[in-house]
Structure formats: C-alpha cells, structure tokens
Automatic annotation (TrEMBL):
GO MF term set: hydrolase activity
A Pfam family hit: Phosphodiest
Organism: Brachybacterium ginsengisoli
Gene3D superfamilies: Alkaline Phosphatase, subunit A
Protein name (record): Alkaline phosphatase family protein
Length: 452
C-alpha cells in the first residue's frame, strides 16, 4: 500500500485560496498519549502519527458524547448542550443516550458544510441520529433488546442515504452480550468512500474503550483492540487511495478521554433512598424523588426535582456536605454549577457535580447497597472508567497527516474544541462562538498566514 495519503505536496502547491480539502476524522475512543509509543509500532497508526500529533485535553465531563460533540462544534457542554452520555431519567436502569443530533444547541461542522455544498458522512459518530444536515448519516444507536430492534432504530435514525449502507452491511454488526460496531463501522465507512467520495467523513471506533472498561487500562485485550483498530484504519486509508482522493485528504485520529482504574462503585441514589429523598414502591422501583445523582463515570450530577422547594434544596446540599466530610462515603468534593460553568464551560439542569475519591465510579442504580469494592465477591462492574475532571489523569490524542499538515511535528497541548476549529479551518469553514482555536502547530501554512 502506498503512503500517498500522508505525503505533503511541495509548499508552492499548498491548497489555493477558496479550495477545500477533503477531511477524514477517525475517533479511536479512549486512546491516550501514553498509547502513542505502542501505536507507532503499528503500520497504519504510524502513518498518521508521522504527521503532527500532541495531547488534547477533554472537556468536562470526560465521557464520549459531550467530547465527540465538542469535536464537531468547537464548544464546551455549556455551548453545545450535550452534558452527559445518557439522558437524565430517574428510575430508569438503562436510560437512553443523547443519540439525537437535534439536541445539539449550536451549529455543527455538518451544518456549515451543508451550507457550503460540501457532502458530509458520519459512521457511528455520537449524537448524529436524525441529523438535518448530514448527507449520509449512519449514527451510533442501539436497543438493548437485541440485534433486530437495534437495526430497526438504526435505520430510523440514519439519513435517507445512510439506510442503504445499514442494510448492505447489517450482517457485520457483532452481538453477544451487547452490540459491537467496529467491523460494521469500518465496512460502512470504506463503502461510502468508494461510492460517494464525501468531502467530510467522521468515523467512531470504540474497541479500545470497550477493552479498557472490561479488562483494565493496559492489558492484552487492549493491545489486541489497538491491533484490530489499526487494521480498520488501514482499510479506510486504502479506500481513500482506491477512490483516487488520498492525495487531497487530510486524515485525523482523535480521542475523547483517558481511563482511571476503578476501585469501587458508589450508588449515591441508594443513600438518597435511605434518607427518603428517593421513594420506592413495594416492588423496589422508583416511585418519586426529590434528589437524584446521575452517574457520569467518575463524577455524578446532583439533580433536584423541578417541583422541590427550598427546604428540599437545603436538605440535599446539607446531606452532600456531610458526604464530603464522611470518610466512609467516597465523595471528596462538591462543585456547584456556577463553579463548573466558570472553570470548565459546563452547564446543565443540576445543582452541581460530585467528585468521587480516586477510582470511584458513580452508578445510577438505587438497589443493593451504596458501595461495592473491587475485592467484594459480588463486584461485577467496570474495571476502569473515565468522567473525571479534565486535568486529572492522562490526556487524549490529536494527530493528523495529509497535504496541509506538517510532517514529523509535535505540540504540547490543545483542547478538544480546538480540534473542531482546526477541522473547520481546513475545510474553509468558520464555527461561530467557538471555545477553541486552530492548532497552528499542525499546519504547514498557519492560519492567518499569507504564505502559499
């Protein structure tokens, strides 16, 4: 396989004013900067890392859907409105996720691309269901009831042109205990490239994240997941070459967060139920609530019922203050919403954020007991997790290669919203009110330069 997708043309043939390059963005969910040395030993990761790469600080919360939305909007959660993976639905054991693109509260790259007549496609990218702007959308969405219900909702959420790809590659969705979309997403993406040659393509691959959740941060299963993803990246690069667009395509690898080893799981809603702030019926289901903690990985969102009065509010905040002081409860801090908005650009319909002690995973559930430790015989939860504050633990990765990208470069740090602003710049677009800036260290010709 040739390396044309990585080769920058001579400076004098850099893209002319008004000319739009093609862009392919591949999300390797949960890849972090400490993975780069191993990734460099894999042939297709190495091709992209041979351009320019660096560390990318996630937005809060450091979970998949808010960060993938930041990668397409340039905004933090206060700007784009996707404040968690899941919708807050007290009493639901398995809430729906933020699958619907119409929930995004600001313009996306896909909206801007449509305005400029650029063809866009997404495969498995979060928060792209029912998109009004994406030409070929095959979103990430599932139904826990099984494969057939998943295919039904996937067809419904896909764009009209995307449904043909769902039907063509449905047999490549894996299903054992849950959905596995990596093989399917790769097959769909390469098929779209060959048939449609879109100017903009975003693809989401989750195998590394799944392996880390289930087995730990650095295990044989994670290594195997990287090797599998490397093969899929190779297929995407090969499809670009076969479609004759490799030389005009800038290719990015992005990720959304690191991982932290889990030592315990905390069910704050069990504590709230014991205090009468969550009320259960005779079957043990939630019948009513004044307060609710929505688990967001290693932190939790503290919600107050819209009809709860000031007395309930003061009681809840007093209880949380007691949790922070109690060494038996793994909550080390409460961050009021106004502080989160100022410090992290974070907002949503809650009082603030509970920060767990190191390695504490928050769960939405209310039954059983409040605390489950890794050495407990009945521990059957995640082995590693994310959702921590952005500055904590190892950072995500942003790497690019292509005709407009500097070769052999390295930068120290950017943010996830910076990635979206960089993508917009490469496409000749401009995101309004962005919370980021172009990562000029990546570019052969910095933004604002008159050099050609």
């Amino acid at each position: 396989m040739s390396d044309t997708v990585l080769t920058a043309p001579p400076a004098e043939t850099s893209s002319a004013e008004g000319e739009h390059r093609r862009l392919v963005v591949i999300s390797v969910d949960a890849m972090s900067v400490v993975d780069v040395p191993f990734a460099r030993t894999l042939p297709h990761f190495a091709r992209i890392l041979g351009g320019t790469w660096g560390s990318a600080e996630a937005i809060y919360p450091t979970v998949t859907y808010p960060n993938h939305t930041a990668q397409t909007t340039g905004r933090t959660a206060a700007g784009h409105g996707i404040y968690a993976n899941e919708r807050v639905t007290p009493g639901e054991r398995f809430p729906d996720w933020f699958w619907d693109a119409r929930d995004i509260a600001c313009p996306t790259l896909f909206d801007l691309a449509a305005e400029q007549g650029l063809t866009s496609a997404t495969v498995g990218w979060p928060v792209t269901g029912w998109s009004p702007s994406i030409d070929i959308a095959v979103p990430e969405i599932w139904d826990l009831a099984g494969l057939e219900p998943t295919l039904e909702v996937l067809r419904d959420a896909a764009s009209e042109r995307g449904r043909a790809y769902v039907d063509r590659h449905a047999a490549e969705i894996g299903w054992d205990r849950k959905h596995r979309f990596g093989r399917f997403n790769t097959a769909v993406a390469t098929d779209i490239i060959r048939r449609e040659r879109p100017e903009v393509l975003f693809v989401h691959l989750v195998d590394v994240d799944s392996a880390r959740h289930g087995t730990g941060r650095f295990t044989l299963e994670v290594k195997e997941a990287f090797e599998r993803v490397d093969g899929w990246i190779g297929e995407i690069l090969a499809a670009l070459e076969e479609a004759g667009v490799a030389e005009e395509t800038n290719v990015a690898i992005v990720s959304d967060h690191g991982h932290v080893e889990v030592g315990r799981c905390f069910r704050a809603n069990h504590e709230l139920a014991e205090q009468g702030l969550v009320r259960l019926d005779e079957a043990g289901e939630v019948a009513g609530w004044d307060a609710w903690v929505h688990g967001c990985g290693l932190t939790g969102q503290l919600h107050l019922h819209p009809e709860a009065g000031e007395a309930a509010r003061e009681r809840v905040l007093g209880l949380v203050a007691d949790w922070v002081e109690d060494p038996e409860i793994p909550v080390q801090a409460f961050h009021p919403l106004e502080d989160m908005r100022e410090d992290y650009g974070y907002s949503g319909p809650f009082l603030g954020i509970l920060e767990g002690t190191s390695g504490t995973n928050f769960q939405n559930l209310w039954e059983g007991r409040s605390l489950y430790g890794r050495f407990d015989e009945d521990y059957a939860f995640l082995i590693s997790q994310h959702g921590h504050l952005p500055e904590q633990d190892i950072q995500a990765v942003f790497a690019m290669a292509g005709p407009d990208i500097a070769e052999g470069g390295r930068f120290a740090r950017c943010t996830v919203p910076d990635e979206a602003v960089t993508f917009a710049h490469l496409l000749g677009l401009q995101l309004p009110e962005a919370d980021g800036a172009v990562v000029n260290e990546m570019l052969r010709v910095p933004a604002g330069s008159s050099a050609r």
